[in-house]
Amino acid sequence: SVARHGASLLTVHASGGSEMIRAAVDGANEGAGHCGVLGVTILTSMDGAGIGQAWGRLGVDVTAEVVRLAGLVQAGGGAGIVCSGHEATAVRASFGDALGLLIPGIRLPGGDAHDQRRVITPGAAAAAGARWLILGRAVTGAADPAAAMRLVAASLAGAV
Q: 52: how many CB neighbours lie within 10 A of its CB?
């Protein structure tokens, strides 16, 4: 239904599997225009220990899990994934440009990580292959959001 209302992207849990992702893609294609489906892999607020605790497994390799989940998204016809910038290079090595990368956990150089475990600067995310960035608290929580956006732009231009 979000595709019919003009959304250009929507997210689903990659852990739902390729069949669920395919159903989301098919539903999104029923809307007017194009709405890409992105699979959320592992939240940037979690690290290997946190994932291991949540999944009841020890020694979870976050990068390997993100790449595995990305494979489910690709098999389901998804347009891309949501992953930390730390895993972006490994995803690019496995899938090239076939999957767009939406990178959350963006922080300005020297900025507070807050509750996030795997953060990255805008410039580093772009260099790792991000197609889209989620700019949340790095901008909205800044004392001067306009100045923060100028720093984001400078980081993306390689000046920071």
A: 16
Angle at 31 between CA 26 and CA 33, to 5 degrees: 110
What are the angstrom distances between the C-alpha of 67 and each of 31, 91, 103, 143?
29, 6, 14, 37
pLDDT at 13: 96
pTM score of the predicted model: 0.88
- Measured CA angle at 87 (ends 84, 90), to 5 deg: 155
The pair of structure tokens assigned to 46 is 């979690």
* Rounded Cα gap, residues 61 and 42, in angstroms: 11
Profile the chain (160 residues) by mean pLDDT over runs of 10 residues: 86 96 92 86 87 88 96 98 94 96 87 75 90 89 91 80
pLDDT of residue 102: 95
d(CA 19, CA 24) in angstroms, rounded, equals 9
Q: Strand pairing partners for 106?
A: 120
Q: What is the pLDDT of residue 17?
A: 97
The three-state DSSP-derived secondary structure of 105-152 is CECCCCCCCCCCCCCECHHHHHHCCCCEECCCHHHHCCCCHHHHHHHH
